[in-house]
Design brief:
By secondary structure, this protein is α+β, with helices and mostly antiparallel strands. The chain has two domains: 30 residues, no CATH class; 118 residues, Homing endonucleases (Endonuclease I-creI). It is built from five helices and eight strands; from the N terminus they run ββααββαββββαα. It has a four-stranded antiparallel sheet. Strands 1-2 form a two-stranded antiparallel sheet. It has a two-stranded antiparallel ribbon with strand order 6-7. α4 runs antiparallel to α5. The longest helix has 15 residues. It starts with a strand and ends with a helix.
């Protein structure tokens, strides 16, 4: 780690926990870059977009079967433009979905947590669309829980 930063380990606290921190140098600046857009080159090729989408879903997406037994895929995020880009690219794959919309305004509270920025939601409910999306995205999902949830929904929506 030396050429990239250092790790500091602190003495045990009164509860016996050990704290550590990793300090990284400017070679990790790419982690700080937070732009609300999908790069053009990512959208230029299906495999690039699907890899991006798989990672985004792993981090921000949810596949589930609601209490009323309706299957759903959703992403909630402050990244309005990324969600609209995802919607447009999914449409190009001939998978129907409604565009993202505002689900929570900045300054509002949800379960006692205040939203500092507007939160947008992207949702997919129809069985045919869910089946097409899951079959297309499954090879790109890496998160074990997300893959399991996607397979659960896929098994539910299959005839």
């Amino acid at each position: 780690m030396k050429p990239y930063g250092y790790v500091a380990v602190y003495p045990r606290d009164k509860n016996g926990a050990i704290a550590s921190r990793c300090y990284v140098n400017s070679s990790f600046d790419f982690l700080l870059k937070k732009e609300d857009r999908v790069e053009v080159w990512i959208q230029s090729k299906r495999s690039y977009f699907m890899s991006f989408l798989g990672g985004y879903i792993d981090a921000e997406g949810t596949f589930c079967i609601n209490a009323d037994r309706s299957p759903v895929f959703s992403i909630k995020s402050n990244d309005k433009n990324i969600l609209f880009s995802i919607h447009e690219n999914i449409r190009k794959l001939e998978i129907h979905s409604n565009p993202p919309y505002l689900v929570r305004k900045a300054g509002s509270y949800n379960n006692g947590i205040r939203s500092n920025r507007d939160v947008y939601g992207y949702f997919m409910y129809t069985r045919d669309s869910l089946k097409k999306l899951i079959i297309a995205i499954l090879p790109y999902l890496q998160h074990q829980k997300r893959r399991g949830d996607a397979l659960n929904v896929l098994n539910y929506v299959r005839p």
